[in-house]
Design a protein that fits this description.
Number of domains of chain B: 2
Oligomer: heterodimer
Helix content of chain B: 40-55%
Shape of chain A: globular
Helix content of chain A: over 70%
Radius of gyration of chain B: 23 Å
Largest sheet of chain A: 2 strands, antiparallel
CATH topology of the largest domain in chain B: D-Maltodextrin-Binding Protein, domain 2
Radius of gyration of chain A: 22 Å
CATH class of the largest domain in chain B: Alpha Beta
Order of helices and strands of chain A: HHHHHHHHHEEHHHHHHHHHHHHHHH
Largest interface: A-B, 51 and 53 residues
Largest sheet of chain B: 6 strands, mixed
Number of strands of chain A: 2
Number of helices of chain A: 24
Number of domains of chain A: 2
Number of helices of chain B: 12
């Protein structure tokens, strides 16, 4: 069985290990992305055999998705877009001296999520892929609308401010040449605006630089001492979150398998889901709720397995990283496509095995060295602030090797600082940027397909079971956030909901 | 200063000049890829360049620079020194920048080092589409005006050129053009039934066809394609296609105009050798590309013909921002 290939060859095992280890650190540094690392590896591994090359890439991918949580928890700076939700409850934990515990739970739950993703890939890939490609433009649009409704979950405090932040994000995402018509939007005839605003630059600025500016206010404040005795979560703790993590992992696999969406949206949706289903969290969400860590971290690692599903069964990438891996397979003389599973089933099982191994390595490397990591939070701010700024600049430049991105990053950093200052949440801005094109492009595709006829558009929604379910979900979630619903609920059940 | 010393200095200077001329490359060459990692331009360049490095005896560091349909990468190389240490690895898109209003530069600012290969355009249809061939498709469009959903990738992309070609040859076809980000997402949508027909490059569709996930309708070539010999070719369907064919997206390596001749020669020789590598040829054949491996005058002539035909086709379809005439692009003689 090819699934065992990885276990019988020490060299491949070593490469997966090295990849996972490197991935964790690449993922942890904002701006150094897995996508970037894997694309560099394409040239680097050109002359290698295909198995070693894939081993290294799979390791980096798995490790990188997990690594993003590290800086999110310790510094409130998500290392990758898929760790944005993790920061919301992870950082409050670190501020209470529970960084070690937060990382411990994150690691075990990422492992669990990863496992579910791999399991689904191994046993149900063809079915999930067939389901994923039936998503029509209108379904992606409804999914994006569902995503937009997360603004409520991501804004602690004023919803109005959250909506403003989300709308700003959508506007930022629309800047540049429209990919469908090449018309310029919000570019003010400036060359540097034509390519749009790099979403990673916005993220690094809003979270990294604004955090550094924020900390600058109390530069002499003593750092919180971290408790490092209970790092590995007890079996009881894991068991308690098992039902939730099964649900959020499923969200991760499906969203990951959809060719138009990835781990970032999966993590945010999972966070929102956790907030809805958790009736009485021990600690409120946004203040360090364990559920707020479990949900996004299981989902984004489950999305890894999910992203491989359309890649392996149809040759369609599930996200940016798998898109590059398809290129890698091609360079190594394979023809990734629907026939790959038939012609080269070994390749499929080899990747499943490599993912499994990367997941195990992630658990091992994740749980060791936590003590040293938590020391980062205990470092004096006079050291940590310059370090954050340096990493932010390097990261923003590295995305496209463009100095313009550094300016954007710094600009959004200052802007983000003032947003924090006036109580505007930053999460919805990033959510808006992520969803902007998904919403815009798919709405236009959907309505163009129906000859710009709204009647036909709604007819399409009602006649398709998938679209109808998504549409009903949108309506329910929307209504459940309005005062009308709360009033009705109070009248029906006799008590106000939280 | 003694004569000896001056003599030695002069000799040193001379030998240094000779050395620079002979030893190109003396440092790493930067290869700027116009498109993202994993895309077809990227994979072609990353597959051929290691063989060119071997022939050249130097290192080419490849870097993806995306944005503005590749214009950002092109402008970057235009702004660099014409010393052969920054080369552009691109596709056909820059030939349309001027007429599409995407930029002021195109490949006329470059010397083609090698035009490696050309892709073949074809029409593929969703398996459930109520027709199996080109004539059937035309009949369906005529009977159901405004119903057939045809995939597109924005003005200037391969689908827009093919659609313009069909409209010119067959008369205006009443279809709905649904835009996608590229042929990958559009072919995914085709399999899911969001669109009915997609004009795509053969290499992108071939695996889906082999697996029976989509059906081939027409190949835009003048001769039977060896990869899909049973599929009808455009000139058999309508002889009028001969005016525009052979046509297809292409991949090439370019150096800025003004690069020293010996450097161009060295690069040209290296890529010509690389393009003859059997491994590379097999790889390209597997993806349905037609090898060209041309340089110099031959490459320039190809570029001119390509630009004239395509720019006017798009202009006649009303898809351009400015007339090709403004940039001195002559209408092709039939």
């Amino acid at each position: 069985m090819a699934i065992l290939t990885i276990f019988t060859q020490p060299q491949l095992l070593l490469l997966v290990g090295v990849g996972t280890f490197a991935g964790i650190y690449i993922g942890a540094i904002p701006g150094l992305s897995v996508t970037m690392a894997v694309s560099i590896l394409i040239s680097f591994t050109f002359s290698w055999d295909v198995y070693p090359a894939i081993s290294l890439m799979v390791g980096i991918y798995m490790g990188g998705v997990y690594g993003g949580s590290r800086t999110a928890i310790l510094l409130n700076i998500p290392g990758a877009p898929s760790a944005i939700a993790t920061a919301m409850d992870g950082y409050p934990m670190a501020q209470k001296g529970e960084a070690g515990q937060a990382i411990g739970v994150t690691t075990v739950m990422s492992f669990f999520g990863g496992l579910i993703g791999i399991l689904v890939l191994a046993v149900a890939a063809p079915f999930v892929a067939d389901f994923a490609i039936t998503f029509q433009p209108r379904d992606y649009m409804l999914l994006a609308v569902l995503g937009i409704l997360l603004v409520g979950s991501l804004s602690s405090g004023s919803l109005v401010k959250g909506i403003f932040a989300g709308a700003l994000g959508i506007a930022i995402g629309a800047v540049g040449r429209d990919p469908l018509t090449f018309a310029e939007r919000f570019t003010f005839d400036l060359k540097l605006m034509e390519g749009g605003i790099s979403f990673i630059a916005v993220m690094i600025g809003m979270f990294g630089v604004s955090e550094a500016l924020q900390q600058l206010q109390n530069v002499n404040m003593k750092a919180v001492r971290q408790k490092i005795d209970k790092i590995v979560p007890s079996f009881g703790t894991v068991k308690k979150y098992l039902p939730l993590s099964l649900q959020t992992s499923s969200i991760g696999v499906i969203i990951g398998a959809l060719p138009g969406t990835g781990g970032d949206i999966a993590a945010l949706m999972a966070y929102d889901h956790a907030k809805r289903v958790t009736k009485n969290p021990e600690v409120p969400f946004g203040k360090g709720a364990m559920e707020g860590l479990v949900a996004p971290e299981t989902a984004n690692n489950a999305a890894v397995g999910g992203a491989f599903i359309p890649m392996m069964t149809l040759g369609i990438p599930g996200d940016a990283v798998t898109a590059i891996m398809i290129g890698a397979l091609f360079i190594h003389g394979l023809n990734p496509g629907p026939m790959l599973m038939v012609d080269q089933p070994d390749m499929f099982w080899f990747i499943v095995g490599a993912l499994l191994m990367a997941n195990v390595f992630m658990l091992i490397f994740g749980l060791t060295g936590i003590k040293i990591f938590t020391k980062i939070v205990e470092m004096p701010r006079s050291i940590i602030i310059p370090l954050i700024l340096l990493l932010s600049i390097v990261g923003a430049y590295a995305v496209n090797n463009s100095i313009t991105d550094v300016y954007w990053m710094l600009g959004f950093g200052v802007f983000g600082y003032f947003m924090r200052h006036y109580g505007y949440p930053l999460g919805p801005v990033i959510l808006g940027v992520i969803l902007s094109r998904l919403l815009d492009d798919n709405w236009r595709r959907a309505i163009i397909s129906e000859r710009e006829d709204l009647g036909r558009f709604f007819e399409g929604i009602i006649t398709s079971p998938l679209s109808l379910s998504l549409f009903i979900a949108v309506i329910l979630i929307f209504v459940s956030q309005t005062p009308v619903w709360t009033a009705a609920k109070t009248r029906l059940f006799g008590k106000a909901s939280s | 200063m003694s004569r000896k010393l001056i003599g030695a200095l002069v000799a040193l200077g001379l030998s240094a000049t000779v050395a620079t001329a002979q030893e190109y490359p003396t440092k790493e060459i930067q290869g700027i890829i116009q498109w993202g990692a994993g895309g077809s331009t990227d994979t072609v360049m990353r597959s051929v360049t290691p063989h060119a490095e071997e022939a050249l005896g130097g290192t080419v560091v490849m870097q993806n620079m995306t944005g503005a349909v590749g214009a950002i990468a092109l402008n970057y190389v235009v702004d660099a020194d014409a010393d052969g240490y920054t080369v552009l690895m691109g596709a056909e898109n820059p030939m349309l920048y001027k007429v599409m209003g995407l930029g002021d530069e195109d490949y006329s600012a470059f010397t083609p080092v090698n035009l490696l290969a050309r892709g073949t355009a074809m029409l593929v249809a969703n398996n459930d589409a109520p027709f199996d061939d080109y004539a059937g498709m035309l009949a369906y469009i005529a009977a159901n005006p405004g119903e057939l959903k045809l995939g597109a990738t924005g003005p200037g992309g391969l689908p827009s050129v093919i659609t313009a070609m069909m409209n010119t040859v067959e008369g205006e076809l009443d279809v709905i053009a649904v835009p996608y980000d590229g042929d990958g997402p559009a072919l995914t949508a085709l399999q899911g039934g969001a669109i009915d027909v997609m004009p795509a490059v053969l290499g992108a569709a071939i695996e889906g066809i082999r697996a029976g996930n989509m059906k081939p309708i027409l190949i835009f070539e003048t001769e039977t394609n060896s990869t899909l010999p049973d599929v009808q070719i455009a000139t058999d369907a309508n002889a009028a296609y001969a005016t525009y064919l052979p046509w297809g997206p292409f991949f090439g390596v370019f150096a800025k105009n003004g690069t020293p001749d010996d450097v161009i020669e060295a690069l040209t020789a290296a890529y010509a050798t690389a393009a003859e590598n059997q491994e590379f040829i097999d790889l390209m054949a597997g993806r349905g590309f037609t090898m060209m491996n041309i340089s110099g005058e031959e490459a320039s002539a190809f570029l001119t013909k390509w630009q004239q035909g395509t720019a006017w086709l798009l202009d006649d379809a009303g898809l351009t921002q400015a007339s090709p005439e403004e940039f001195g692009i002559a209408r092709p003689a039939n």
